[in-house]
Amino acid sequence: MKSFGVTITGTGSYTPERVLTNHDLEQMVDTSDEWIQARTGIRERRIAAPEQTTSDLACAAAKQALQQAKLDPEELDLIIVATISPDRPFPNTACFVQKKLKADQSACFSIEAACSGFIYAMQAANGLIRTGLARRALIVGAEKISMTVDWQDRNTCVLFGDGAGAMILERTDDPAKNVCLAADMGSDGTYTDLLTVPGGGSEKPPSHEMLEEGLQYLKMEGREVFKLAVNAMVNSASAVLQKAGLKGESLRWLVPHQANTRIIQAVGKRLGVPEDKVFMNLEHYGNTSAATIPICLNELNRGGHLQTGDLVLVVAFGAGLTWGAALLRWP
Ligand code: UT7
Q1: pLDDT value, residue 174
Q2: How many domains, the chain?
Q3: pTM, rounded to two decimals
Q4: Which residues form the domain of 95?
């Protein structure tokens, strides 16, 4: 079978206008700006307007990426949206993105791998393009995660924010020219209860009782997740570096999932990546789940911090548990 190369031709991102600061949260739950900054590194996050859907956020990011790639939406043949806050249980959120963009030539599906979702989407698109099933793909990580947040639970409500990041991946005829040099993905379903929205699915369908128990809200065992996150991200990133025959110090950027400054710093240190090469922006957005990595990549790209040939390692960890990493050579 003929195989193709894959390149990145555009990136984009969008975060909603409304800023919710740590001081705002002090008025809502028993917390403090000092605690949140010291324990997480977050100062503020963005919250979508009630009428804004996840696909609205995704479309705003996608339009920027399409513009940079100089593509019309109808030239796309694949749309993948990574999200755990879909517009509806079904149809999938990528179909809503397709409708809003008028990208009528695309196959559309969503990926539900929580904070690792964008890396999973990148690998799915990469595989479909390399094998010739797709030519021009839009991949988006988009979350209106605020819809699952219990604004009375100080253990979780200070951590999350809404946003979206997008990327265009396109086929090149030379299979040796591939933007993704190596990748790793994994999951451990024994930990399904550590970070979850317990209600609303087939296990506990929507009901008055379910709502009264608050099972529509995100629940997390933070301390346990913290430990597993560091190990999983270090192991996944190390596996990718090993496959590529590289060490942490060769990277231009390490772009880790943005959940907690302390997790990110621990991962950077254990991988031997100097601090000034570990990208962080969670101060402004909090944890936007599947959107953190594409938002970071877009900020680096548009901020002029990426040159052709730069090595960028993205690594994520999330509910499931799921994890993944990918080494990119910036085109
Ligand atoms: O996206 C991927 C998945 N998510 C993550 O990766 C998140 C992973 N976990 C974390 O980032 C951290 O565990 C948290 C930020 C969630 C919590 O930080 P921690 O240092 O692990 O704190 P802790 O859970 O051990 O709690 C320490 C104390 C507790 O009080 P006691 O029991 O020691 O009296 C909490 O009740 O801090 C208390 N606490 C708070 N205090 C003020 C918890 N949340 C808050 C809060 N404000 N918002």
Answers
A1: 86
A2: 2
A3: 0.98
A4: 5-172
